[in-house]
Design brief:
- It is built from 6 helices and no strands.
- The chain is an all-alpha fold.
- The N and C termini lie far apart (about 80 Å).
- Residues about 30-40 have low confidence and may be disordered.
Length: about 110
């Protein structure tokens, strides 16, 4: 694969040319990927596939992963806020304010 990229002008030229990418795609799909050593000087088939995919498809494929990570971060933030809230209320000690917040006791 690296020879095919080099014979077409190098990585930068290949990435900037739609025609060259079209030529390289079949080579990447049929090439023996176990013999390819991935360095900065060659292009692997997954990169070519990603470059050929539309942005909408890429975003749609990554949406479940993004949502999962967002949910995890949201839960961590909620837990941190709750923990901080509890520490503040404990620092306030007793008193009418504390009883109303923690125990839902209405002031009379």
């Amino acid at each position: 694969m690296s020879a095919a990229v080099a014979s077409r002008g190098g990585v930068e030229k290949c990435l900037s040319s739609e025609d060259i990418l079209n030529e390289l795609l079949p080579i990447a799909k049929t090439g023996d990927s176990s013999s390819i050593q991935y360095t900065d000087s060659n292009v692997d088939s997954s990169l070519l596939f990603t470059l050929r995919s539309s942005l909408e498809d890429i975003l749609k494929n990554n949406e479940p992963i993004f949502e999962s990570k967002l949910n995890i971060q949201t839960k961590l933030l909620q837990d941190t806020i709750k923990s901080s809230e509890d520490r503040i209320l404990r620092a306030l000690g007793g008193g009418d304010f504390y009883r109303r917040i923690i125990h839902n006791v209405s002031a009379t």
